[in-house]
Amino acid sequence: MRVRNLKHTFLVIIAAVGMIGCHKTDFNLEYVVTPYIQDTAKAADRLATGVIGYAFYVDTNSYYAASYEEVAMGMLAALQEGNPSKSFDMRAVQGEDGKLRFDPIVRGPVMVTLCDTVHRLYAWRQIPVIADLPQVVVNIRFRPWRTDTTYVEARWTMVNGTAYPEADSETDLE
């Protein structure tokens, strides 16, 4: 009887471990960005128009957004000299509601770039991809009135110029 109970307990433990191990991790994320523009320091935010976005299955330790022109074409430059540029894996354009939807993002790491084609501004960031999280909704605010070429806001590196930003930009207003 005792051997039978031991076998039964062992089978229950194996079944439980098997069920835990068989849980399918789902990486099927919809990343939604609502872009805003603030025309002057005291102006209210308004929905930006003419914004396009690109998602890349790369890490910001390997690639960067080198210029407005490259970002507008959906390209990233390699940090390592001699490595090729990277073309986008996913493109998002503004829908009727003004939002950009990247769907589905199926793995990480992911770098997202946004390009305001009206004001010639761009931004990028590494986004977190979390298993079993179906949607992430974020806002971004372009500020063409700012005089600094680059700044960091809400973990987005914002560029108000056409050149690669200086590495000392550390202002995070999140």
Describe this structure as you would to a colleague.
With 174 residues, the chain is mainly beta. Helices cover 14% and strands 37% of the residues.
Structural class: mainly beta
Number of separate helices: 2
* Percent of residues in beta strands: 35-45%
User: Quick check: average pLDDT?
Assistant: 84
* Unreliable sequence segments: 10-21, 163-174
- Rounded to the nearest angstrom, the radius of gyration is 22 Å
What about the largest sheet?
A: 6 strands, antiparallel
Shape: globular
Q: Considering DSSP H and I runs of 4 or more, what fraction of the residues is helical? A: 10-25%
Helix and strand sequence: HEEEEHEEEEEEEEE
Keywords:
174 residues, mainly beta, six-stranded antiparallel beta sheet, 2 helices, 13 strands, 14% helix, disordered C terminus
Please write out the topology.
Blueprint lengths: L1 H20 L7 E9 L8 E2 L3 E6 L6 E2 L3 H5 L2 E4 L7 E2 L2 E4 L6 E6 L4 E7 L4 E7 L7 E8 L7 E4 L2 E4 L15
Parallel strand pairs: 1-11
Antiparallel strand pairs: 1-2, 1-8, 3-7, 3-9, 4-5, 5-6, 9-10, 10-13, 12-13
Summed up:
This protein has helices at 2-21, 68-72, and strands at 29-37, 46-47, 51-56, 63-64, 75-78, 86-87, 90-93, 100-105, 110-116, 121-127, 135-142, 150-153, 156-159.
